[in-house]
């Protein structure tokens, strides 16, 4: 376990769906927290029957049980950071927003999960307005992939300029930092073999890139990235340190997964990859990790 400056154990909470296949959702988040030496607590919003081939069933947890889980964790465990993932529907969004407001925590990382890699919807189509109005104002860091940013902004993102415009529009909704993840496209990047994420803090654009790993074992990359950022914030890293460290951890976990063979579809990444703390980033620069 890693300690904070005041010698307390770093603690993080994930509010997300359960993935029975173990690669994404709550399971990915808790494995990531552990990899960073951060104690992990959880609030389950939905139970999915899922594996590397797709999503077979979804059961939404009743909203009173979601409220109670959050209250139980806030009353006793008192997390230093929170990751928010799958929220399923408008009622769950409103419930989570109400409890987050009550808790008044500043390190909330929001991954606006909409669709699983196999194409299964994880959020109802009528939820976009509630997500924008109720959850984004509470986010310290917002981490949409390109298709999610397109839904939230209602325009298509084909170039780095489009991505910058999306980041500017989403920042106006309240998050301190917006990251448009480049896992889905080589938008605006002269190196087609790189996976570049665009970070906007309201003043400058910073990008973080790694080599794009040619792998189908990428199930759970988005969940892992956002929970790694939350873990790093619980460890008192700056936001850019947290993003750079999380980005490199996800890359190493994708590379490490090449060694294993789990499931017949989109395999999970390897959360036992080691964590290297990345420091010294300056806003407004491009980093190749
Ligand atoms: N094949 C890949 N090689 C390297 N990095 C990747 C690859 N796929 C995704 N990433 C990185 O993983 C993180 C999650 O991105 P992404 O896969 O776009 O999220 P999501 O799972 O929400 O769609 C980002 O930092 C992205 O750049
Ligand atoms: C329960 C649950 N939550 C989130 C996701 C989506 O996870 P993500 O990291 O975006 O990975 P892919 O599904 O895109 O591989 C999920 N599948 N299940």
Automatic annotation (TrEMBL):
It comes from the Bacteria. Residues 19-270 form the Pyridoxamine kinase/Phosphomethylpyrimidine kinase domain. It catalyses: 4-amino-2-methyl-5-(phosphooxymethyl)pyrimidine + ATP = 4-amino-2-methyl-5-(diphosphooxymethyl)pyrimidine + ADP; 4-amino-5-hydroxymethyl-2-methylpyrimidine + ATP = 4-amino-2-methyl-5-(phosphooxymethyl)pyrimidine + ADP + H(+). One of its GO terms (cellular component) is cytosol. The keyword Nucleotide-binding applies. Pfam families: Phos_pyr_kin (PF08543). The keyword Kinase applies. This is Hydroxymethylpyrimidine/phosphomethylpyrimidine kinase. InterPro entries: HMP/HMP-P_kinase_dom, PM/HMP-P_kinase-1, Ribokinase-like. Belongs to the ThiD family. Keywords: ATP-binding, Kinase, Nucleotide-binding, Thiamine biosynthesis, Transferase. GO terms for molecular function: ATP binding; hydroxymethylpyrimidine kinase activity; phosphomethylpyrimidine kinase activity. Pathway: Cofactor biosynthesis; thiamine diphosphate biosynthesis; 4-amino-2-methyl-5-diphosphomethylpyrimidine from 5-amino-1-(5-phospho-D-ribosyl)imidazole: step 3/3; Cofactor biosynthesis; thiamine diphosphate biosynthesis; 4-amino-2-methyl-5-diphosphomethylpyrimidine from 5-amino-1-(5-phospho-D-ribosyl)imidazole: step 2/3. Its EC number is 2.7.1.49, 2.7.4.7.
């Amino acid at each position: 376990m890693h300690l904070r400056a005041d010698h307390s154990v770093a603690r993080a909470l994930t509010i997300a769906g359960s993935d029975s296949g173990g690669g994404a959702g709550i399971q990915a988040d808790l494995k990531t927290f552990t990899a960073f030496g951060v104690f992990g607590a959880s609030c389950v919003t939905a139970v999915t029957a899922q594996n590397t081939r797709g999503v077979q069933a979804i059961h939404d947890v009743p909203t009173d049980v979601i409220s109670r889980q959050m209250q139980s964790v806030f009353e006793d465990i008192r997390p230093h950071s929170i990751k928010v993932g799958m929220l399923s529907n408008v009622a769950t969004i409103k419930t989570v927003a109400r409890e987050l407001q009550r808790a008044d925590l500043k390190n909330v990382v929001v991954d606006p999960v909409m669709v699983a890699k196999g194409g299964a919807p994880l959020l109802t189509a009528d939820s976009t307005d509630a997500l924008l109005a109720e959850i984004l104002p509470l986010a310290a860091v917002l981490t949409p992939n390109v298709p999610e940013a397109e839904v939230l902004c209602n325009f298509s993102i084909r170039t780095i300029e489009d991505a910058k415009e999306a980041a500017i529009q989403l920042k106006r909704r309240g998050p301190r930092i917006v990251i448009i993840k480049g896992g889905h496209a080589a938008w605006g990047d002269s190196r087609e073999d790189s996976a570049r994420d665009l970070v906007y803090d309201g003043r400058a654009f910073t990008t973080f890139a790694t080599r794009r790993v040619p792998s189908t074992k990428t199930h759970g990359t988005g969940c892992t990235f956002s929970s790694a950022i939350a873990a790093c914030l619980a460890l008192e890293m700056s936001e850019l340190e947290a993003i750079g460290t999380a980005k490199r951890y996800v890359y190493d976990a994708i590379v490490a997964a090449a060694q294993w063979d789990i499931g017949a579809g989109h395999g999970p990444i390897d959360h036992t990859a080691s964590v290297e703390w990345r420091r010294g980033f300056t806003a407004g620069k491009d980093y190749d990790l």
